[in-house]
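Might you be able to check the backbone structure tokens below? Thank you kindly.
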Amino acid sequence: MEIQIQKVAWTAAGHRLTAAAGSVTGNHYDANYDVLHLDPGRPMAVLADGMGSGPGSAAAGRTAVDVFARADLTHPPAALRQAVASAQVEVRRAGAALEELTGCTLTAFVAGDEAWIVQIGDSRAYRLRDGLLELLTVDHTIAWLGLLHGWFAADSDEAHAARYRLTRFIGHPDDPDPDVLSVTLQPSDVYLLCSDGVADQLSYERLIQLLGTNPDPAAAAHFMLEDTLEAGGKDNATAIVIKVEETI
């Protein structure tokens, strides 16, 4: 399976950012229900992961990413919340014509004078800084709540089933708010946005190794996706790697 990697460069908040991204279908699904967007004109990376494996999943991811990518994000954080709210409306509208669940996750990185992460669902954003890989986002799932509060063991059947019970997502009838996080940019930082096809198949230690030993974000993204296939390709997998450097 050939892995295609996109790559762009931006300048934001006094730093040069190099971003690379790719996605693979894997071996479980016949189609890829992940959607990614690297904006060529402004520092924006967006990832959506459709819920399920039908037309509703495909419509939700594509619609959510398109709406967010078109949004005027001049005045965060309010503009980021509004972009998600607009995506909610449009995904529900798309779902009205379909007789099935129409929903998706959405995780985005946006930078200007400041940098922001937007999160709803169970795709993730990580940051590698000074050798420490931190998960910056929270999974909006019953599994996350159950593990946090000790309702069940991490390797239990209950935990596995709860991974598929999202408490917040795009297309939700109750318009749940996204998490909006302000982040600082420092030279040598590496940000990773990924779908659960990456997070569930690659270990924490392997993510550190890939992000910390590959100076080129395109190489890191490529090897990461390759690893998901070698791990079994049990899900669609998407990775966006963003490296921060000083502006020259």
User: Anything to note?
Assistant: The chain has one domain: 5-130+168-246. The first strand starts at residue 5 and ends at 12.
